[in-house]
Amino acid sequence: MTVRTARAADAGAVARIANAVIRDTLITFTTDLRQPEDIARQIAARAPRFLVAERDGQVVGHATYGPFRTGPGYAHTAEHSIQLDERARGQGLGRALMARLEAVARDDGIHVLVAGISGANAGGIGFHARLGFAEVGRMPQVGRKAGQWLDLVLMQKILSPRPQAVPDTATASG
């Protein structure tokens, strides 16, 4: 298995994985299928923040991050997404993708990664918890798909430690 930066040529495989998740699950609230040309543009705009996992020469998963919210105060917070082909789940590929994505994010100056997870996706919530993400909020019934109201679970992981306070030497006795 290899984790690498995505290329435009990966857009079709990424679309296949994403569209299966959109069509067949409640993992994402969207019902709009992804088009390879749109994904190719996203890959170009986010490189090197768009990664794929390959197994036996086939793309079997992808992960990326982008802005959490607009405005300069949020510049060090990003929201990520990760999706795996159904047959690739439970084999450590998601962990490998996230380890690399977190390293890229740290290098990019990201302090906090946020995950917005469907409340119907117990596997995704557990996966993120095992990686050190903490649930920080739950928004009941904010999504709707397949005739169901769905909760949005917000999880976050702080990637860089909080700076230690430096004693004020001007007031320290000595």
From TrEMBL:
One example GO MF annotation: acyltransferase activity, transferring groups other than amino-acyl groups
InterPro entries, per the entry: Acyl_CoA_acyltransferase, GNAT_dom
Domain of life the protein comes from: Bacteria
Sequence ranges assigned to domain N-acetyltransferase in this UniProt record: 1-160
Xref: Pfam families: Acetyltransf_1
Keywords: Acyltransferase, Transferase
PANTHER family in alphabetical order: N-ACETYLTRANSFERASE, UPF0039 PROTEIN C11D3.02C
Name this protein carries in UniProt: Phosphinothricin acetyltransferase
